[in-house]
Amino acid sequence: MDFAARTTAARRRGLIAAAILALAIAPAIPLLIAALRGSSDYSLWSDVFIKALLASLSLATGVAVVSLGLGLPLGLLAALYGPRRRPILLVAQALPLLLPSFLLAIGWRHLPAVGLPKGLFPPSGFGGAALVMGLQAAPLPLLATWAACRNLTASQIDAARLHGGERIVLTRAAMACAPVAIVAALLAGILSLSDPGAAQVFRCPSAAMEIRTSFAALGDRVLAARQCLVMAGLALLLTAPVLLVGLPHLAAAVLARQTRPVVPYRHRLLGGAGQAGLVALLLVAVGLPALGLCLPAIERPMFARAAKTVLDTAPATLAYTLGAAAVAVSLATVLALLTMHSLRLRLAVLAALMVLLALPPALGAIGVVHAATVAPPWLDWLTRSRLTVAVVLGLRLLPVAAVAMMRAVGSLSPSWSDAASLCGVPKRRFLYRVTIPVLMPTILIGLLLVAVLAAADVTTTQLLYPPGRASLPLAVLTIMANSPEGLVASLSLLYLLGVVLLMLVATMLSAWLLRKWKTS
Amino acid sequence: MNRISPSTTIWLTLMALLSGCSRPETVVVYTSVDQVFAEAICDDFERETGIRVELVPDTEETKGTGLHNRLIEEKNRPRADVFWSGDPVRAASLKADGVSAAYKSPAAEGLPEALSDADGHWTCFSARARVIIYNTDQVPEDRKPTSILDLADKRFKGRACIANPLFGTTSMHAAALFSVWGEEKATAFFQSLVDNDVAILGSNGDVKAAVAAGDFDIGLTDTDDVHVAMQDGKHVDFVYADADGAGTLVMPNAVVLIAGGPHPETARKFIDYLLRRETEEALARGEAAQMPLRAGAALPDGFRFKRVSEIHAMPVDYAELAIVQKKLLGDFLKQWVDEHK
């Protein structure tokens, strides 16, 4: 291929990637226009909003610090020393990420009510909220650190070990993995900005609550949109310097390396510490709040009613989650394939994805609500249906799927495509016969990951679901304040078991696919 | 024979799930009544009539106001057929905003006409009342509260809580106080709450939970919340707020026919069903333990609450409260919450 043809192809890839990113931001556009052109009866820069904004930023910082403090060391120990039962422990770490934050927060608040000592639960206000949300978010930097550490070469680790033993290994590996871990922790902080659930349960003021008050109590859509924009802008402004430093590391981390990978070193003390840390994190982040949530189900079981709610909401929940997963993973796969040849394009796409993730979910959802009221009735299938919820959720979770797919595409060996090209195999045939089958385990894991994350969402679903088509978490949220404790506990238990079951299926399926791929 | 590939099967299943299959007769009901209570009545209606109810409940934190604003937003192209409101103030407000249509149901016979809209835009039935919940382990019988003024009493300093008055029945209660007491006394009362470190929680459900857990001694909430807590065996009891003074705020349900809703026929059938004596009796038997408005409606054994006719009710005009509440939400209450939350 000559230079001009390569340039044209690169330009086309850039344009398609830009179109996908534009599609992802499309739901928010009606509200962005309203924010810029509409008028509001209230001042945007009220004292209370500024106070709430500062509180949210402090909370996000707290969440980032707590999650980084726990995630970085545990991720290093897991990657370098291979604690016993590491695979299952690492998979289980994803559990807190897949549960709605309000559920875990309420579990913490219920601990004294089920007879456990008061000292076991975190205090009200900022401290409690930051601790609980930080614990829930810790798996993000943990898994990011683990993945970044796996990208180090065995020779680098061996050299460090020869130079100064385990202390130097840990120090050097921490320095190498820190940028990716910090980006992940910041991401956790940003995500906490748009989540009013846990902050409200712990009576901590937040900008997300102010946005909800503007929309739900004052009915002022324009004010809500402006507050969303301020929040997203501020989050980006504060994280931009770190993203600038961290993104190249993240972009490199999603690439394949044809080097000898790190083999976990058997170290009794550090391996034991890693295992104990992973178990403790899981027990504290999920075990304790789950106990608070589910214990009343043993005293006053109401599983028949809970099962009816599960069955009633199952079709809608499946439609939203599978639809969102299909949208996110399809677009993510295309994005990953488009960016595989260009570091610059990959960096630009990753930066845009981080911006997308920083936008509060309410921005897109309220935008669609607004668009639906002015759209003609024949567009209801797009603006007021289950498809709407699935598409908006899928676009919201595109960044998560895209990072996973970029990692998988990065692991494709360039020599395969070179060989296929030399032998005259058409590109489309290579895509269907080689690329897609190799990517299939990640596609399936991505589908399940996005599906479970979409299932845990309540903000988008609450604003967009068609009448009578609530999802299971939304049903839990709407009934939990006034229902008998036994019913709430039974529902929570079923929800928790469902997520665990899904994770088991995902793990077994991907292991089976990998085995099958390796043997074929 | 051509086989359908697994991926085609998955896509077809997904599209079937997303598009929805053929539907029976339906009615779309928005409700600010707690989902767990409304659902039982809707299930009975479905069984009896074969009409499918598509229910849209509100979350506890944005109770009432969230759906109310959604109905106004959707005014030009409504999705809802019926709004089943937990209080008549939002129903009256919908009339003022041109969202509701008039419908005088024949099933409303026996319900007190004075409580409903004269033009038939909203009709009241079964009621709840505002009560003060207290923790029986922490508040002895001789120190129990009797009036909402006790929230500002020194003996409960830092130990009392209310729900966010921007939402739900607490915002209606605030409007009632401004209407009955006048601006000066009501404003002074809200200031006294601040002086006594009264906590503002997310919802009435949170108030119930916090008092039951012993985080606070007393709180202001609704009869249905207290009933659920007592059913769960929590150490709580209640008093009707201001039963001996200005009166207890009684909050009947109100049902509204939405103008231009997509299913007007099934909407009328649903309204007729809600306003029947049997529904009032079912709501009294249910977990919300709502008080029937019909004097002769049967009450279940061990019913905890009084009949509405036996309560010394606060003298309020619900239509007037709608105007007061709207003004307060954008003005005093927003500022008060902003300053003291």
Explain the overall architecture.
With 520 residues, chain A is mainly alpha-helical. Chain A has one domain: MetI-like (MetI-like fold), CATH 1.10.3720. Helix content of chain A is 80%, strand content 0%. Chain A contains 23 helices and no strands. Chain A has helices at residues 3-25, 29-37, 47-81, 86-93, 101-110, 126-137, 139-150, 154-193, 196-201, 207-217, 221-253, 268-299, 303-339, 343-358, 361-374, 380-383, 386-396, 398-410, 414-422, 427-456, 459-464, 472-479, 485-519. In chain A, helix 7 (139-150) runs antiparallel to helix 8 (154-193). Chain A is globular. The model of chain A has no long low-confidence stretch (mean pLDDT 82). With 341 residues, chain B is of the alpha/beta class. Chain B has two domains: 23-127 and 251-309, Periplasmic binding protein-like II (D-Maltodextrin-Binding Protein, domain 2), CATH 3.40.190; 128-249 and 321-340, D-Maltodextrin-Binding Protein, domain 2 (3-Layer(aba) Sandwich), CATH 3.40.190. Chain B has twelve helices and ten strands. Chain B has helices at residues 6-19, 35-49, 65-73, 88-96, 168-181, 183-195, 204-212, 223-231, 264-274, 277-285, 318-330, 332-340, and strands at residues 26-31, 52-57, 82-85, 100-101, 122-135, 160-163, 199-201, 218-222, 236-240, 250-258. In chain B, strands 1, 2, 3, 4, 5, 6, 7, 8, 9 and 10 form a ten-stranded mixed sheet that branches. In chain B, helix 2 links the parallel strand 1 (26-31) and strand 2. Chain B is globular, with a radius of gyration of 22 Å. Chain B starts with 5 loop residues before the first helix and ends with a helix. The chains are: A mainly alpha (520), B alpha/beta (341).
